[in-house]
Amino acid sequence: MPVLPILSYLLLALGLSWLVALPFRLPTEWPTHLVAFSVEALIVLAALALVPALQSRRVRHLVAALVALTAMLALGDLMIRLALNRPLNLTLDLPLVRALYDLATGTFGLWGGLALLAGLGLIPLAAYGLTMLATRSVQRMARHPGVRAAALLLALTGGTAQILQAEKPEYFGTYWPASTSAGVTLASQWTQFRTLRTVEPAFRAAEAEDNLRDIPQGRLLSGLKGADIVLAFIESYGESALTDPLYTPRIGARLEHFAATAETAGLHTASGWLVSSITGGQSWLAHASVLSGLTIDSQQRYDLLTTGSRRTLERYFAKAGYRTVAFEPAITRPWPAGDFFGFDATLSAADMGYRGPAFGWKTMPDQFTLHRFEQTERRLPAGERPPVFAKFSLIDSHAPFAPLAPLVAGWERLGDGALFHDLPPEGGEPDSLWQDTGRLRQAYAASLDRALQVLQSYAARHVDDRTLLILLGDHQPPGIIAGDTESQAVPIHVLSGDPALLAPFLDWGFRPGMTPAPDQPRPPMAAFRDFLVQGFSPQDDRRIARSGAAAVELDGARQSH
């Protein structure tokens, strides 16, 4: 029996099956996980060697196309797991291709981003070519009986190992050599597609239930006493920033400094948690969950929401006599879904009047966005204009986390932002950061610290007893930053010069200060719309804001602090 063809087949089959399995094992803290072999690949190669009817060029092309498709799915699955901490779902994730293009070109420049995307596109092409060569070699070697026997034995061994892994995992410890992830991922796409088709009826039923619609006009949000509401989402601000030892020293110190600055400015503070609908990215889903009072955890549910009739938070504020505005510095192209939310004004990047430089992917600094709001919406005293409900999508702490705009001490100097041309950016270049996980995590902490520092300065300068500032994270950062955690909780902070405006939050489980406690309640983001509207809409003629009690509670907490 010739030994060389058998050895050649074994090397080829194990090599190809390893390449198919590898992307599904990344990332991992266990090096042994990287030595895995695709059972599906071993079975397909055995079939090519054993079944004469399959030994044709057409079949080889079919197998190569299947491997190329698997390579694309594996690549997409890897990126989704790294960014969003969940498996790939093609039905939901295909729209993210445009977001990938924006992130790549924003991080590495147009040509650098295109080169990166082209490199990713070459991976399935390379998989196709390698598979064509491999299958042709297998069919040629299959003339030897020993090769056919080896192919059958190898496929049976892989299948047996997979069964044992499932039935007796304790036998394998941390090393699981057999992998069926390729087949599972392929099959799951069809299963997920069929499941999603059943979502719409249940979603429409939930959409129709609205506990707020019957609140009388005279009571609607009257507990706010006409205070301006500033709702600001802080990008990638999740529980990990307050609990992970990599970030806690810096972010914890920032929150303590923030609390001290707020107290000096005569502001009262309280903090709590919300559980985001997503993790790692897709901030607009979290924003939609807060505004709609529904859990929006996928693009499909977002599309259903924005083609429906749900009355969102800002529409209740409009009904109560507020001017509603949204500041969206990350939006750089038409946003048809914006019409659904119905803000009186939605300012995208092009509408801000910014004349400074972009900072990598970030179109402008958060400081300028907040400055623009004050100059355009709050220039007149509160009594000479309608109260304002403003929603912000802040981006200083958005990936790739660098470069950062410097903080300008004198806000009056900001003007149209042109001064940033003369100020050196901070934080380094993003292309070098993403080559080193440690530096990337440091850059994340620095960008989040800067985002909070800007808000600290803003609060001290612009928040008073006629303002309620609500700061909340949108989601946990990507898994490569957040680490091995299942938490989707995000901090939420409220600040005002009027302690009565914080009373409903204290009743909801918040505690005074800028640092939420681990054991505080963690309601879902979808609960926030109803809480805010009901909490500030009195049930009778008495004001729900317990000014005296709230002031005593907050002042007592300050003294104990």
Automatic annotation (TrEMBL):
Keyword Cell membrane, does the record have it? Answer: no
Which residue windows are transmembrane per the record?
35-54, 61-84, 108-134, 146-164
Classify the source by domain of life: Bacteria
Keyword check for Membrane, yes or no. Answer: yes
Which key words tag this protein in UniProt? Membrane, Transmembrane, Transmembrane helix
What SUPFAM superfamilies does the record point to?
A: Alkaline phosphatase-like
The protein depicted here goes by the name Sulfatase
